[in-house]
Design a protein that fits this description.
alpha+beta; 3 helices; 16% strand; 2 domains; 67% helix; disordered N terminus; 130 residues; elongated; 3-stranded antiparallel beta sheet
Length: 130
């Protein structure tokens, strides 16, 4: 009878171990789900912070253009912006305010011609652009 009692005790202990293991599993599942929720919240907060930082990085070019034009007017100079359609480059001409003569051209005209000649030469060598 004593062996039977021990078996019952061991069964009760096993049942308690199983119950505690399943409750541990539930605790782990709850803990894991809470941790996953915290991770999702942290990722969302990080994404929102990055979006706000990106908004701050966007620059309104008109503000800078007004500043540049104000500075150049102080030195009695004008800036003329144009686009070279052949090379798709922006060309800036610095013009004297009194005489309306071009003081400087950026990029220089010679460099623009060189660029177009290089593109022509490459076009002769290579048929397609990938």
């Amino acid at each position: 009878m004593e062996l039977h009692f021990n078996n019952d005790v061991s069964k009760v202990q096993k049942n308690r171990n199983v119950a505690s293991t399943s409750s541990d599993r539930r605790e782990f599942q709850v803990h894991d789900s809470q941790q996953a929720a915290r991770m999702r919240q942290a990722a969302a907060a990080k994404a929102q912070a990055q979006a706000q930082a990106q908004k701050k990085k966007t620059v309104d070019p008109e503000i800078y253009l007004k500043d540049i034009l104000t500075i150049t007017s102080i030195f009695n100079r004008k800036l003329r912006f144009s686009i070279n359609r052949e090379s798709n480059q922006v060309v800036v001409k610095v013009i004297d305010g009194e005489t309306d003569k071009v003081i400087k051209e950026i990029p220089p005209e010679a460099l623009q011609r060189l660029h177009s000649r290089m593109r022509e030469t490459i076009g002769l060598l290579i048929d397609e652009e990938i």
